[in-house]
């Protein structure tokens, strides 16, 4: 009887475990460059369940970075997550960067703080590389159309310096009741390149 229970439980474990199929960040970066990707997709990558940072390219961004731009002071903490799924039900996991941010105005008043948020609440997560640049997405005050892509890149001559550029989404649903000061609302992140220094 013990033998039957053991065999049954081993078979159940084998059947319930789905083998992880590993791909690389480089494969998905190459996929984005394919001329017919919008029509054909990347069928060779369809079975991948884990996109791995096999060359440790994400490590260069890990740490706390500080800088100033347009009268605002920025502190950005970037963490590498390995085999990360935002939700347990997600079919694919990624090695990616999750960001947290503290922004102060010229009088050192806090105007944005996600330092104590959970990974899924930071609304600042990485996607993939475009050459040397790592593409992230940020959502701040979505009611004021504060969302878009953030591009970060460490400098070749000094890897302790990083440039950051924010490309704010132009489309979205604006609710004037939730963003009454929209006409004077300034973007939280700079839409010009700024430099941050690793601490």
Automatic annotation (TrEMBL):
Pfam families: DUF6705. It comes from the Bacteria. Residues 1-130 form the DUF6705 domain. The keyword Magnesium does not apply. InterPro entries: DUF6705. Keywords: Signal. Residues 1-19 form the signal peptide. This is DUF6705 domain-containing protein. The lineage of its organism: Bacteria, Pseudomonadati, Bacteroidota, Flavobacteriia, Flavobacteriales.
């Amino acid at each position: 009887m013990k033998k039957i229970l053991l065999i049954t439980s081993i078979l159940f474990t084998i059947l319930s475990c789905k083998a992880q199929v590993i791909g690389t960040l480089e494969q998905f970066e190459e996929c984005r460059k394919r001329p017919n990707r919008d029509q054909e997709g990347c069928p060779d990558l369809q079975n991948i369940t884990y996109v791995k940072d096999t060359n440790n390219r994400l490590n260069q961004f890990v740490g706390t970075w500080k800088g100033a731009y347009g009268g605002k002071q920025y502190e950005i903490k970037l963490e590498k997550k390995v085999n990360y799924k935002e939700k347990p039900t997600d079919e694919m996991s990624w090695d990616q960067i999750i960001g947290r941010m503290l922004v102060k105005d010229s009088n050192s008043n806090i105007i944005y703080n996600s330092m104590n948020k959970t990974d899924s609440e930071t609304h600042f997560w990485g996607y993939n590389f475009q050459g040397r640049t790592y593409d992230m997405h940020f959502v701040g005050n979505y009611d004021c159309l504060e969302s878009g892509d953030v591009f970060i890149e460490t400098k070749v001559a000094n890897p302790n310096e990083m440039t950051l550029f924010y490309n704010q989404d132009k489309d979205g649903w604006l609710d004037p009741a939730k963003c009454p000061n929209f006409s004077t609302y300034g973007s939280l992140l700079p839409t010009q390149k700024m430099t941050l220094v690793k601490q």
